[in-house]
Amino acid sequence: MGVSTSSPEKGISLVVVDVPPVNALPVSGWFALADAVRTAGRAPGTRCVVLAAEGRGFNAGVDIKELQTRGPGALVGANRGCFEAFAAVYECEVPVVAAVHGFCLGGGVGLVGNADVIVASEDAVFGLPELDRGALGAATHLARLVPQHLMRALYFTSRTVTAAELQAHGSVWRVVRREELLGAALEVAREIAAKDGELLRLAKAAINGIDPVDVRRSYRFEQGFTFEASVSGVADRVRDTFGHAREKHENEKHEKGTRKGTQA
After folding, report:
1. Using one digit for the tens of pLDDT, what is the confidence trace for 190-220?
2. Strands (E) located in the chain
3. CA 209 to CA 27: how far, in whole Å?
4. Contacts of 230 (CB under 8 A, 6+ apart)
5. Residue 66 has pLDDT above 60, yes or no
6. Does an H or E element contain 166, and which?
């Protein structure tokens, strides 16, 4: 469990996250992931990094329980850890292919939004439920996956989008069956790794250099509001009701349906 790195094929490094039950990473996990991606990208023989996960979903963001029990120190650590992990993917010296299955939420969007290529399974869903969890952030990365107004609608409603919908927007390269996911990710990684390694590194630096948005600065700006929400008490107020609002909504729907049935 944790973060592991292997070399399934020449020129390809596979970084896998496995933090049960839902890959919600603690502070140490984000830093471990950042180190693994940077180390893989720096290796002279690496020409492409594949980022994948084990378990029920790709990533469920930060470990909320750690934030609740450890207080401000955990928030500062999570902010820094996420910042480093997202930056490690973006600044990786070689292209990064994200292989996404199941849920890709919060910090997961930060990771894949900074990847170079996204391959997803048919069951993959992407979203930022931050407003339901007393947090903010990663709108910078969601904006790299969908058009501006859709990003805002998804952010304010905390809704998710499917892999097929993202493919329609051009941000997901391929959508495949779950059992085909790693093979599909390795397929595109293999195609990338067939290029000249030195030229690939120059190409990655050149493409990052022409990005219209500085993702590091933009995300750091968002994190300032995350911290403000925390010190003002707003984050704790929302976080303490995490899960209860949805339960209340479902109960209200059930009661409404029961009343309709009685009236009929």
Report:
1. 999 999 999 999 999 999 999 999 999 999 9
2. 2-9, 12-18, 48-53, 96-100, 103-105, 117-121, 125-127, 160-162, 174-176
3. 29
4. 72, 75, 134, 236
5. yes
6. helix 163-168
Contact 85, 30 (CB under 8 A): yes
* Cα distance between residue 130 and residue 251, in whole Å: 23
- For the whole model, what pTM was predicted? 0.90
CB under 8 Å to 176, separation ≥6 — which residues? 119, 120, 121, 122, 184
Distance CA 102, CA 217 (A): 29
CA distance 79 to 114: 16
Query: What is the distance between the alpha carbons of residues 218 and 110, in angstroms, rounded to a whole number?
Result: 12
Please count the other Cβ atoms lying within 10 Å of the Cβ belonging to residue 51: 29
One-letter amino acid for residue 39 of the chain: T
Can you name the residues that pair with 97 across neighbouring β-strands? 50, 117
Is the torsion defined by CA of 92, 94, 99, 100 positive or negative?
A: positive
CA distance 154 to 163: 14
